[in-house]
Specification:
The complex is a heterodimer of chains A (327) and B (309). In chain A, 33% of the residues lie in helices and 22% in strands. Chain A is an alpha/beta fold. The relative contact order of chain A is 0.13. Chain B is 78% helix and 0% strand. In chain B, helix 8 packs across helix 10 (214-239) and helix 12 crosses helix 13. The radius of gyration of chain B is 24 Å and the shape is flat. Chain B starts with a helix and ends with a helix. Classes of the chains: A alpha/beta (327), B mainly alpha (309). Chains A and B meet through helix 2, helix 4 and helix 7 of A and helix 9, helix 10 and helix 14 of B.
Amino acid sequence: MTPLVSIAGLSVAFSGVPVLRGVDLAIGKGEALGLVGESGSGKSVTWLAALGLLPRHAKVSGSVRLDGREILGAPAAELDQVRGGRVAMIFQDPASALNPVLTIRRQLCEALSLHRDLQGNAVKAEARRLLDLVGIPDAGRRLEAYPHEFSGGQVQRIMIAMALAGNPDLLIADEPTTALDATIQAQILELLSTVRRELGMAMVLISHDLGVVAENCDRVAVMYAGRIVEQAPSNQLFADPVHPYAQGLIGALPPLDGPRRRLTAIPGTVPDPAKMPDGCAFAPRCTLASEPCSRAAPTLAPIADGRAVACIRAEASRRALLGIAAE
Amino acid sequence: MGHYFAIRIGRAALTIVLVVTFAFVVLRLSGDPALMILGPEAPPEVLAAFRKAWGLDDPIWFQYLDYFGAIAKGELGRSMRDGRPAIELVLERIPATLALTLPAFAFKVALGIPAGIYAALHRGSAIDRAVMMTAVAGFTVPSFVLALLLVLVFAVQLGWLPSGGQDSWRHAILPIATLSLGGAAVLARFTRSAMLEVLGQPYIRTASAKGVPWRRVVTSHALPNAAIPTVTILGFMVGTLIAGAVVVESVFAWPGVGRLLVVAVANRDLAVVQCILLLVAMTMVTSNLIVDFLYGFLDPRLRAKGAHA
């Protein structure tokens, strides 16, 4: 079965500085994929690049296929059909993501008229239905309001309604709850998973919150310094992370059950994209690094069904996790 | 909403009072109108009679109160030079000034705003750099230098256009060009930075992400937001329509309000100067009020604030 979207060798450089260094990623129809990693690891850039939303001075190469059709560098008119129509995106800071001088109706109906064959009153009726769907009370009246008249959580609901307007096959949620209160976060995530289930839509949830991803995604990809370093089904990644970086991320989470233990931190900091080390980008911070790690960057290789990791010390790392003495 | 504008109108009135007071004080401290108008050789009794006739021998606070009392009755005084009502002298000059400033305003808008938008949309391109260099030049070169430069090239060297006077429409070309170029440069810079600011906002990315074609992102998402700061500078330009051409009118010997002001100040023709300043303050303040109204119209957030104020 061809995946809905498949990304291969996607690279991005901003004025000569590489920020994305060969990303391979595939999303199946209806699948929920989590994309985790620190700020600057390239999670958002991957999708902005895939949809042609980066500023012109960004150099993008590689391949992004939607239903087998290449969309990277596609003509603007074709991309406009894809954006919002096939792949919709919602962003981190809802307060500034809506145009402050246009009413909600204008912004919602714009998306509807671009991607749906609706005329006149049907557009407004559909806009009202979408607001109802995402849980904005009194939708008919609220359509005439401006973004500043809504709370942050409500604006994110409106963003979701707008993303759903084009009946997309894939929704990219770029840190959709980072700017919101904890209670609102849970509501928004709940809303996302409900609409995803009901509409059979695939979703990419970009987050640095591992808990959010674990709860909402079937599969997780971990990014580090512009590359994907590990991919696995969610439950397996959290139970048995293989890449030392993924282990570090999960080791930094407090366990909910079992004995209390000291939380571990990953030593060092993310390398400067302008001064990337040769070989594995994580090697300078990795406790298992050996001499060959600094020679060539490891490629993402399958280790089990549905699992892949980019680490030449994967075996040693797995043993270390399981407490098996190194040979 | 009413309360919001009541405050603004009150503030505008206060501004006018301050401007007029300032002009009143400075003019009376800077020289004796009797000496200026009658000359230093005039006999002392003539000077004394002149001062008495115009009330210049009264205490300054008395003159001040007298002056405001007259304004309240709608009397703006008479010219000390020829005894005609000051307002009449000023009003008959206004058409000549507007004949320069109105077309210049139209050119500023027609040149400056599109140039700024284009430069912002093609940031870093050769055209952007050319527009910005022209804008900086237009911004920094004083208008009298530009005026003289234009005279030198088009009147002296090429002989295409007259260098001064008001005999035909051809006489208006150089003064209008001088006024337009500087203003267009200011407007281009403002528009460009307003557009760049707006184009970097997340809601522009949202519009692109929902599949709005780029041209429509610019026209229906970016421009309405960039209009807000641009209107500020436009309002300022409307405010200078009456007396924004003082230098240019002087260089090109154009008999407008600006030249009247220069002559009246030189002669300490107090009523005329005060009348012009009052008019200038009123146009400035009115255009600022219009800008405030437009803000409310353009930006729903300010509208809401106004309603709650």
